[in-house]
Structure formats: C-alpha cells, structure tokens
Specification:
There is one protein chain. The chain has about 70 residues and is of the alpha+beta class. The chain has 1 helix and 4 strands; from the N terminus they run ββββα. The chain is flat and about 35 Å long. It starts with 6 loop residues before the first strand and ends in an 8-residue tail after the last helix.
Length: about 70
C-alpha cells in the first residue's frame, strides 16, 4: 500500500497547535494528527466525512469556526 497523499485541513490553526491532515483513500477518508504522524490514523467513509465537514461549516459542532 502506498503512502497516502496528506493535506492539512483548512480548519487547522495557523499556529500549528491543532493540525489535522486528511488523505483520500478510495471510498474512505483517512485522518491523522500532523503533530504526531507516527500515531494510528482514523479512517471513515466518505458519507460520514461529508456529514462531519458539513456540520463544521454550519457551526453545529462545539468549537466550529463561526
């Protein structure tokens, strides 16, 4: 399996204290903490990722950017 092509979330803080990276992997999205890339990754289905990012954009989650 090849290394995922990681990209930093647009919601990550500029100070790099809360950096999340994601990579597309077929029908799944893989997520990791960029400060600790050696830790296990989380993988979710595209539908779940779409729901999650939609909730962030709509401000329905605590800590969502307004």
């Amino acid at each position: 399996m090849s290394e995922p092509k990681w990209r930093k979330s647009s919601y990550s803080e500029a100070s790099a204290n809360a950096c999340v990276e994601m990579a597309e992997a077929g029908q799944h999205i893989t997520i990791r903490d960029s400060k600790h890339p050696e830790l296990p990754w989380a993988t979710v289905g595209r539908g779940a990722w779409t729901e999650f990012t939609g909730a962030l954009r709509a401000g329905r989650l605590r800590g969502s950017p307004q």
